[in-house]
Design brief:
Layout lengths: L2 H10 L4 H38 L1 H4 L3 H13 L2
């Protein structure tokens, strides 16, 4: 267990049962939201990429420029 998890557990240990139910509900809510948000980000990225490719001449960029930026972005993760 990392330090953040320990802090969360310490805070949770002081709550009454009704508040623990709220915490459990909130955790489940957060877990459900993650895939939706990830899917939204992926769709946004795909649309942005299509937009960039459709405007290559207007923006005066080459496919190599686009690929270089994609690689740069992926390596920074």
């Amino acid at each position: 267990m990392n330090d953040l998890e320990k802090m969360i557990m310490q805070e949770i240990s002081t709550l009454n049962d009704m508040r623990l139910i709220d915490v459990l509900g909130f955790i489940r809510y957060l877990k459900e939201q993650k895939p939706v948000r990830q899917e939204w980000v992926e769709k946004w990225f795909e649309q942005a990429l299509k937009s960039i490719h459709s405007r290559e001449k207007e923006l005066k960029i080459t496919p190599a420029d686009i690929q270089a930026q994609i690689k740069k972005s992926r390596s920074s993760r």
